[in-house]
Amino acid sequence: MPEKRISVRRGIGFSVGSGVLGFAVLGVFALPAGAAESDISFSKIVFNGGKPVVVGTANYVDVSLTFTVKSSVAIKEDFLQVFAYRGTDGVDYGEIGGLSEQESACRKSTSGGVTIRTCERIISVDPRGIQGNLRNLVNSDAKAWKTYGRAHTAAGGSDTDKSSATVSLKRHAILTVNATPEPVVAGKTVTVTGKITRANWSKHRYDGYAGRSVKLQFKAAGATSYRTVKTVTSSSTGALKATAAASVDGSWRWSYGGDSVTGSQTSVGDYVDVR
User: Fold this and answer.
1) Percent of the chain with pLDDT over 70
2) Does pLDDT of 238 surpass 70?
3) How far apart are CA 175 and CA 238, in angstroms?
4) Nearest alpha-carbon partner for 146 in 126, 129, 168
5) Which of 48, 137, 155, 254 is the most exposed place for a label (fewest CB within 10 A)?
6) Burial (Cβ within 10 Å: 0-12, 13-18, ≥19) of residue 153
C-alpha cells in the first residue's frame, strides 16, 4: 500500500512553532547540560501511543507525544521540551522532539506545592530534511531512541531530565499483489504474485526487501477475516510468488509482520471469481 501523506509541514526535525514538533537530526552536538533535579521532573513520556514510528521516503508523519511534568518551581510554560535521541554525545547525535506551543496544550493541577502538567503534543517527522540545516534520515536511524525532557525556569535556568522510555523508529514497507487468472475455473490453480519493498532513507527510494517471510492470505466471499494459506520467502529483488487451489470466490493478499527496523505491512486484497 502506498505510504500515506499525513502532514503538509516540511523539514526533518522537530520544527518549533505552531505547537508542532518535528524530527530533528541536527548533526554533532552534546546532550544539553543540566542534571535532573528534584524540583522539576519528567515522566510518562510516550511517543505514538507506544507504537513504532514508521516513516517512508518523502511524506511527513504526524506522531502523538504525551508526557507529565512535575515542578515545585516556576517554569516557562512555552518552553517545555521533550526529545528522543540516538547516538553518542558529540559523535553521531540526533534528536526527535521540540518545543511546546503554549500552556493550553497541558492540563495543570497542584498538590502539596507541586504543579503537575499532563501534556499532549503532535510532532512532524520528515525523512527529507529540507528545512534549515537539518539532515535527512539515514538507514542507521532505524532503531530504538532514548528520551529526555527539558524545562526552562522562570528564573532563567534550565533542567534536563533523562527518561527510561524509548521510541522505535522504523522504515516503511510496501506490498503489492496480483492474483491470476481472473476468473478461474473451480479446482484449478491461482497464482499470486507481488513484491515487498521498503524505504531506503539514505537514497530516498524504495528497494526490494530480500529474504523476508511473507504470508499469503485468503478471505472467502462473505467471510469477515483472512486466513494464512502459506508462507513464502521474498527473492533477492523482493518478488513474491505462490500458487493455491481455487475452490470459492474470495480475495488474496500478502502480509508481512515487520521486524526490528521495518514496519509491518499488508497489501490490499485482490478478488478472484471462481466459476
Assistant:
1) 78
2) yes
3) 10
4) 168
5) 155
6) middle
